[in-house]
Protein 1
Amino acid sequence: MSHLSVRRLWQSYGDKVVLERINLEIESRSFVSIAGASGCGKSTFLRLVLGQERPTRGTILLDGDPLPPEPGPDRGVVFQRYSVFPHLTVLGNVILGLEIERSPLLGRLFGAARRRAIDEARHYLEAVGLDGDRERYPDALSGGMQQRLSIAQTLIKKPRVLLLDEPFGALDPGTRASIHALVLRPWSEHPMTVLMVTHDLTEAFKLGTRVLVFDKTRHDEQEPERYGATVTYDLTLNRSPSTPPPPAELQAEQASTRSGPRCPPADAPRTLGGAHGEPAHPARRRPTDASTAVEPRAVRDQFVGAGPAPARRCAGHVRRRPRRAGAPRPTSTHGPRRPPWNRGRYGTNS
Amino acid sequence: MTSYRFRWINRRPAGRGSLLALLPFVAIVVAYALGSHARLARNPEDKLMPAAATMAQSFATLAFERDARSGDYLFWEDSRASLVRMGAGLGIATGVGLVVGVAIGMLPYLRALLASLVAAFSMIPALAILPILFIVFGVGEVAKVVLIVVGVVPFIIRDLSQRVGELPEEQWIKAQTLGASSWQVALRMVLPQILPRLIDALRLSLGPAWLFLISAEAISATSGLGYRIFLVRRYLSMDVILPYVLWITLLAFAFDSGLKWLRRAAFPWAREEARR
């Protein structure tokens, strides 16, 4: 199992508070997408879970035990860049985890042990579609292939928690889509919890079973670094047919989530967002209300898609209603507001 | 139709330009031959610019005739002595530099302890402590080898520890998430990626190393390429000095090319610095 509990987590660097009051219970086998604006602390949060940094205050528990304060094999990671070792071939990169585990002194396997490791590695390489490239060096691979390699390299260790730090940020959209499918598959085969940091909300919803948004809720004009970001938006999506249904109490809690949007049916298509083009990106909008980084409505629009929701207000969809025949021509006082530049000319006297 | 005029920064020699590279060498040889011919025509006893034939003859005497006093082929004996010192010096420097450089680069405690010391040591002009080395180690082989080591090691240590520090943070984390211990990180991640850098550092050290070797031999030795050059200087024997200098240059060039080849052959994944 791999249940993560985050208790009263704060992280600050000197006077600069980055994260504050983070409390989370993350169920085993969930796929948590973490979104938010640049600099909102989502990568800091990932580094804390990874053990790359130690929290200023608070604890993170994995199945009830505090996380070791340094990175270890229980938590795998895929970074945006520099994720594979350039001096090892594709195969070498994948068997490295096994060699390290089985040969403490040399970190290298020979003979039959090596052949066994290679067989295991090839299983993963086939899964990510790189078996044919196993003798090549990462330098000769495209960015998408390198990320696939990194995923295989990480999964062979069967980590309890998989951390993805904007893993697809540097990839073009087509490559991204093919890797999304890949990320969804192994996740449902091994019992592990996935945390993915992304700034692409479409991606967050497409992949995640739960979406977290980090943002600041308190602002101090004089001292912008006085307050840190916290979880401002937490949406559980109960729609993955490959995951066991969450416990009843969680569902109950879900129903009363303050953030509002209801969960769509379990058979909701996975390709949401991509199906009807890219809607206006809610995360890019500056939130007017500090309590929610992302307008629930905008998120719902994006998620539920082009359904009957009347609230779609994308610029391209706004259409002036045709005037009914026989209706009186609107006057300046009752009709639609004139644009400001000709309000004065006719609006007062006629 | 007027032909297009490229900027000079965009004009490139056809082919690989190897003929162009040969040109300055040919020019120097021709200039020397003309100068030598002119001087010898005025004074056949001139020793400053000996003719090629004279140089060849002197060289043959040293290389293919036994010396009356020692019974050695002097040229080969000189080469052997110098190469042994050079090999020992560079070998020890490489080993010490690699181990200490990687350790300092990897371990924060060691870095805090030693980095300043190495930085201070690398500022000492090695030749200035040559007298100390002669006093401490005597005038035998040891002092010459130690001079090379002392002169080259601080540079290698600093260069390698810096290169280790330049490995991306992501790699360090990744290796740990794969379960690697510090020792395994050193063995499987740092060392293989540092070896090509070591070769680069070694190539850069070749110039100083020869400088130290020849200086040490010039001051106190009974054989060696540097010793011979400084010995025959008393007789203005340019016919010996010039072939020796050529030979030393050739050896240095061979070392450099060999290391370059080794880097390419052994580390195909490591890109060299981008060239225009």
Note: The two ends of chain A are 76 Å apart (CA to CA).
Protein 2
Amino acid sequence: MNPGPQIQFYLFGKDYLPVTDTLLVGWLSVIIILILAKYLTSSLSIRPKGKQNIAEMIVELIYKQIEPMLPGEGWRFLPFIATIFIYVGFSNLIGLVPGLTSPTGDLNTTLGLALVVFVVVQYEGMREYGVWGYIKGFAEPVIFLLPINVIGELAKPISHSFRLFGNVVGGGIIITLIYQAAPPLIPVPLHAWFDFFVGMIQALIFGMVAIAYISVAKS
Amino acid sequence: MVNINTTMLWQLINFFVLLFLLRKFLYSPIKDMLDQRAAQINGDLDDAEARRKEAEELKAKYEQKLKDARGEAQEIVDNAETRANKKAKDIINKAEERAENLKAKKLEEIEQAKKEAAAELRDSIADYTVLAANKLIQEQLDQKTHQKMIMDFIDQLDEEKLGELQ
């Protein structure tokens, strides 16, 4: 048993360009999400019907998560946050399909996303207070808290990424263990539980934490 | 299990490609649609509000007009009533006057007639009295009585010495 991403082949035969199963599923996820988005928004009208309602519901649901924490900037952050929600959520869900591994079960995915969030958080902080003002904020309320604040800030992407990664991989490991211990029929509800509910909740948490970090940096 | 490598870069590219394309295919169209709808609903609501106001103004105007018309009608009715009353009074007055005149005239006529009748009656009575007296005298004065009366008269003349020459 070897949980986590499995290297499938090397791009152009180079050792430093491995292609893992999680990356392949990630590409697949992107393609499916884009097809779905294109389908859902293929015939928009002022009076929504059917699939347009679903698309609007998703967008508005995410917007309603952002707006209360970043008042007045819901639409500015929507593309970024919504893409996190959708990509992470879909990546978690796609693990339901037998034979596919969740891209979020790969630390490369979650840490990558967490680092993007980290960069956005720093950018927004500096945009709000100016570069020097933002940096000075780490030395408050007293100067000797500076190292602690910096470590705390650097720990954010780590905790952010490992939380999602740990949950997805942990769920995967438990499922694998139960698969080995029990007949394949029994784990189905468990599989659904770990991959569906935990997956959705972790996607929600990942996105909400991203919003919270941005909100904290701006406040 | 935890192996950080270049797939992180690929995943980031995935994320940004998805971000870019979803923005184009999902967020922007949906936001445009929501904005458009909100604008339309706002417009519709404003329109409805304006129409409601307009309707209220019209209603007030019509109510005022109705009130005016009612007042006018009342005035006309009142005028007509007053005029009718006045006319009726005039008619009655005239009638009364005429009746009075007529009465006076009739009374006068009656008076006249009465006078005439009285005069006539007087004449008639005189005639009849004479006639009756004549008749009575004719009937009662027979030869003897006549003679006696003449004699009495003559005696009376004697008694009073009327016939005596002085």
Note: The longest strand of chain A covers residues 7-10.
